[in-house]
Amino acid sequence: DVKYAAELQLQVESLFHFKEKSEMLQSQNTELQAQLLNAKSIIDSERHSHEESIQSLKETHQKELNQLQESTQSEWLQLIRQCREDLEQATLKHDVALKERESQQQQHLLEVEELRRQINSDAAAFNKLKEELDLVKGRKEMLQSE
Fold it and tell me: Which among 53, 56, 55 is positioned nearest to 45, based on CA atoms?
């Protein structure tokens, strides 16, 4: 019976030791689960913070993109306006130059017409003088022959 009692004593000590070890492991497990929950909480918080940061960056990027598009669009519109103004000014200058040229051509035509009239007038006067000269020559010959 002593042997049985000793074996029982060993089994009781072994069970007691096992119980202590089990309680220690359970305590460690509880502590590890608390650390795990804490780590999950930190990770969730970090994830949420990163998501907010990413969302903020996306919004900032979108605002900057919109501003750039508006700016670029505004610059294009300004460039188009400037081109239109330049075209209008060039057209006006061209129209003025064209009217001036037409006026010069009209003046030239008037001068040519005046010269033509003068030439015709001079030719008529010349012909009249020639006729008179011919008459004078004819009279002179007539007078000489008498």
Answer: 53
Rounded CA separation 35/28 (Å): 10
Prediction pTM value: 0.43
* Per-residue pLDDT of the chain in tens (146 residues, 90 and over written 9): 888 889 988 899 999 999 999 999 999 999 999 999 999 999 999 999 999 999 999 999 999 999 888 888 889 899 999 999 999 999 999 999 999 999 999 999 999 999 999 999 999 999 999 999 999 999 998 888 87
Number of H helices, E strands in the chain: 1, 0
For residue 64 the two structure tokens come to: 């900057």
For 1, the 3-state DSSP assignment is: coil
